[in-house]
Amino acid sequence: MPSPVSRRQVVVGDGGVVSAQAVSGTDWQQIGNAYNTLLAGPAALLPFFTCAVSLSSVADITTLYSVQPTFVAWPRYTILARIWLYSIVPTGTASITSRFTAPDGSYSDRQWTTLSSTSIGGAGTFAQLGMHIEGPGASGSSQVTSTPISSGASTVQVGLAVSGNATLLALGCYEIPRLSVIPGENDGLNGDGGEEITFLGTGMPILDDTLQTGVGPGSMLRRLDEVRTDYARRCGIWAGYPNKTTTSGTFVDVYQDGPAALTRKHFRTDVTRTLQLGAYAQGSDATTTGEIKWSFTSGASVTAAINGSTGSATIITQAEVDCEDPSSVDGRRSSRDDIATIQIRRTAGAGNIVLYTHTAGEGSSASPTSPAATAAASAAAPPKRLPPEYLFGRKKR
Amino acid sequence: MSTRYTSERLYYVRGATDELGGNLPMDAGAARDVVNNLNHLQDMQVGFGAQCGVASGSYLEQSTVKNASDADPFSPIDKLPPMFLWLHQQQDGSSSRIVVRLVGYASAAGTVTFRIALRPFDRTGTRTGSPGTGDATSADVSTSSTTAVTLSAVIYVPRLTDAWTVELPTADAYTNTVSVRPYVAVVEVWAKSSATSAHPRVTMVTTRENMNAS
């Protein structure tokens, strides 16, 4: 099975799509492949980030993540998996558990693995690299819709569940389709969301979508802007788990050197794009409140309030940061890294302000197509297959 | 006219799909814009990264520095774990390029060299030795500064073979047995020093995929 991470581009110029020449059936098939690959491409939810968090029993890390609006598929479970990669040094027998909070508020605990210090080379000298794979929820027949960070973050808690202590050195989470896009399997039939590329075969006529409801090249190309905004995003640009505490009334740095942000370039004149910022922070008591501030090299700055212990710990805001410059050798704009200085401070009360985690990633469009609605529509009215008289061309009149 | 697998425009052509109408023939020029848009989206989708940051006022250090004359003078930075990096495969079989940004310095007078290396994923996490010199999958950056400086490098895997894939079997709660095989690299940072008293120190390591469609 080919890797779903392989790019599937379409040739332009010699041997491909050329202005003033007919677009061949082969080119159309490549276009279909590229389109479907964009729909089903993998996403980094929590890009791998070292954290060196010391965990004792039942010490959860709570973080936020952003996902692609969904690979519109039904049922989704058969094609999607989340891959957790971690590096951990246990100092005793321990197990780690991930806890997902689903958009409907329910959650599920999944034990990853049981670790033993004796299984680590040199009694914990080296970190253990681990991997865990799971679906976004219990197996079922209906579609799961993940919530983009821009409209309400999903949270995930990761922590030690039983006795023992450990240092979690690093953590990352990726979302990946379990199947590559294969003509006739998951490319558009039965409401699975892709385009029906078997109809774009070499030597076959290109049919308008009025003949293939919702699955023709016309609909595919008209949905390209939706793909731009809602799919193929850089969902996770950074994630950090600093567990930073302060009582200072002036801003204090969280990191010695901050992470850098680089979003996708969209249109010709773009020099910045919106970065969705998330944080999980709280005061240690009800009356202790504070602020978190992100300041970027490019000049953007945003400050958000940190609630007391009885308020919400979830913080979501935005900043305009550098977008990639494809004409530069390393993608940087103006030969600079747009580095974030992340700071926190206490503004009221006598307790501590704690920044547990923070994330950054590209959000979806302001009003993305509802995946749930799309799935419901697909289920209610699955794409029509052409009647036999259309299989060899347009219907004779 | 050249053949391209990447965007000719280096941006998304706004409104290209507006030219498409039901039951109307499609102009090849408009098709070219649409194809460029598709390719641009794929160019931009590349951008996975991995980062290592340390708390304000701290650093990661190589506490025991080998003699510069040692046959293999490189050793890891203490407590800097290997970082996982998901790789995209390009049209020619190579990986996307990895842009490295490392902020580091020497603790005392001397020249420190950091070696950033990409390796295939190893479930055991056991380091089998320092990466080789001159390997296309590693890059060296050096400084004699005793204050933090930003060092940059670009590395990539010339050909992503099966060795770079990780087979991920059935997820729990699934009944099907379907595997995926993403390309996963482990990013390691090693270092050496011209003087055993000059400890290599790191305050941030960032690795980021870059397509460089230009």
* Order of secondary-structure elements of chain A: EHEEEEEEEEHHEEEEEEEEEEH
Structural class computed from helices and strand pairing of chain B: mainly beta
Spatial separation of the terminal alpha carbons of chain B: 16 Å
Give the % helix of chain A: under 10%
Explain how this protein is built:
The complex is a heterodimer of chains A (397) and B (214). By secondary structure, chain A is mainly beta. Chain A has four helices and 19 strands. In chain A, a hairpin with a 4-residue loop joins strand 15 (289-296) and strand 16. The longest helix of chain A is centred in the N-terminal third of the chain and has 16 residues, at 25-40. Mean pLDDT of chain A is 64; it is low at 69-79, 99-127, 135-163, 179-194, 208-215 and 365-397. By secondary structure, chain B is mainly beta. Chain B is 8% helix and 33% strand. In chain B, the strands form two sheets. In chain B, strands 2, 3, 6, 9 and 11 form a five-stranded antiparallel β-sheet that branches. The model of chain B is unreliable at 170-176 (pLDDT under 50). Chains A and B meet through strand 1, helix 1, strand 2, strand 4 and strand 7 of A and strand 1, helix 1, strand 2, strand 5 and strand 6 of B. Strand 1 (12-13) of chain A pairs antiparallel with strand 1 of chain B.
Summarize the structure.
The complex is a heterodimer of chains A (397) and B (214). With 397 residues, chain A is mainly β. Chain A has helices at 25-40, 217-222, 224-230, 371-380; strands at residues 12-13, 43-55, 60-65, 80-90, 94-101, 107-115, 128-134, 154-160, 166-177, 238-240, 244-246, 252-253, 260-261, 272-283, 289-296, 301-306, 314-322, 338-348, 353-361.
